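Help: read this over?
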Amino acid sequence: MADVTSIIFAGGLGTRLGGVKKALLDIGGKPIIERILEAVAPLSTSVIVVDNDDSLAHLPGIRIVPDSETRAGVLTALHSGLAAAGGEMCIVVACDMPFLNGLLLRRLIDLAMDFDVVIPVIDGQMEPMHAVYRREPCLAAISDALARNEKRMISYLNAVRVREVKEAELRLADPELRSFFNVNTPEDLDWARSNN
């Protein structure tokens, strides 16, 4: 099995939730970040959290890595995480996804053996913050995109081998696609707590 680093993005401002740290929101008696760590730890040799404060530094077994360009967007956060990663493969997830599915993540890793990016597609939209990246080719392609001042999350994909994973295939491991649920609003938080 490939050496895998999990990268968790936790630098968002949580503005639609009043500026709270979304990773620390309680769902089912534990913070979302702990639920995420339970999902990724069995698949990972190391875990990195890309963040710009130390509010998660108390968590065991993680390394906090600052975003190289604060508030510049998710692509710079991905660049920072990949640059710090030790693994050949990187699982990348957002810190506000309380229902990650280890079986689905394992499937994405398996698919990545012949690709540089394995990215789910739901309702025609790519899910780059629930995907698997091969570190070296992606880091090189993202560096080139940032050097051209292209900061969209998909701006480098034409330079790497991409495997899109469609809904039907995703549902084999995650029938309701709960893995992709994000807590962005008070309503989302209520739903997550009611459907834990």
User: Anything to note?
Assistant: Strands lie at 4-9, 26-27, 30-31, 46-50, 62-65, 89-94, 117-122, 125-126, 130-134, 162-165. The mean pLDDT is 91. The CA atoms of residues 47 and 62 lie 5 Å apart. The first helix runs from residue 32 to 40.
